[in-house]
Design a protein that fits this description.
Blueprint (H helix, E strand, L loop, with lengths): L4 E7 L24 H12 L6 E4 L9 H12 L5 E3 L9 H10 L13 E6 L2 E5 L3 E3 L5 E3 L3 H17 L4 E5 L25 H10 L4 E4 L6 E5 L4 E5 L9 E10 L2 E10 L9 H11 L2 H9 L7 H7 L6 H7 L11 H8 L11 E4 L1
Parallel strand pairs: 1-2, 2-3, 5-8, 8-9, 9-11
Antiparallel strand pairs: 1-12, 4-5, 6-7, 10-11, 12-13, 13-14
Helix pairs in contact: 4-5
Length: about 350
Amino acid sequence: MPQSLEFKFAIASDLHIALPHTIWDHPSRFHLVELSIDAFEVVLNHLAGLDLDFLLLPGDLTQHGEPENHDWVVQRIKQLPYPVYVIPGNHDVPTIGSLDHFAPRYAAFGYADPQQIYYHREVMPGVRLLGLNSNIFDAEGKQLGRIDEGQLDWLEELLKDLRVANPDELIIVTIHHNVLEHMPGQASNPLGRRYILSNADRLCEILNYHGVKLIFTGHLHVQDIAYCDRYDLYEITTGSLVSYPHPYRILHYKQDLDGAKLEVRSHRVISVPQFPDLQHFSREWMGDRSGPFMMRLLTHPPLCLQPDLAEELKPSLRYFWAKIAAGDAEYSFPEFPDRARQFFEAFGDRPPADNDATLKL
């Protein structure tokens, strides 16, 4: 790696762009897709004043993969003065056929080969981005979060070749689904495991073997930075622009004689025309819709509480998910039965910090 390397980039994830006539509504909908375009414009206005090297959009660019919403995204990011790199989220490619159209549509934003749904690009001298696809379909057409074997073979061969050609090159990875756990038991809990790759360990083994230490994801709609000592890997997942707290990140990488570090700073969309007090409105919106989810968490494994007790505890958990989504959460439930108290308090954040952190690499 060069003795001196410095660059700055931004991440905005899970945009869920929805033109007004495409908006899908449901009384339990968590996503405030009606503000998707305005929220993205707030972010772009902020980024316009920065000297960015690139912008990363880690999937779920659109509400449900509607062609007109994809077209809007493509036309908007074409106008930006810095490079933009994208990958597909599960919402972008909801059917097998739609997966085939993603790379050709976004050929200018990472996909040198429009017939391949994953890519690698030198984003600047000494820095290479790998954009992976985590969306596959089983024999029944059900969408899964997994990296197919052909892509894993491609990744292994690519990394071997890259390390021979330039062993000091900084390689960073983006993929939509989570790779590391961001909540206790995420990989085993039915409510959490659908957000994590089913073959995450295989990916981590490949990345670790070739010295890749940074991966950027979305999908979970929370602010979290996770570190795995086993693989010496950081995963930075960024919350959704259409869900509380409407975050985005600005990151500054520095490599010099003293080592490498990544400075992560998080920002929020505070207001948009429809919602001048967006943070308060959005937190209440999430709290209003949290009841059914919290009941499933209380009554399903591992807690398996009786419904009557779960109903008693549910009001105290109204903002539980909002705190997780915001990052850097702290919890105290002294009034809960011991088993439930330990379970929920375990969701309190552990280092590194989720919003603002400096990671030594």
